[in-house]
Amino acid sequence: MKPQDFAQKEPRFDVFDYFEGDSRAWGIFEDRFGTLRRQFTVEITGTVEDGVLTLEEDFIYDDGETDRRVWKISKTDEHSYEGLADDIVGKAIGSQYGNALNWSYDMDLKVGDGAWRVTFDDWMFLQPDGVLVNRARVKKWGFEIGEVTLFFTKTQRVAQAAE
Question: Which CATH architecture has domain 3-30+37-162?
Answer without folding.
Answer: Beta Barrel (2.40)
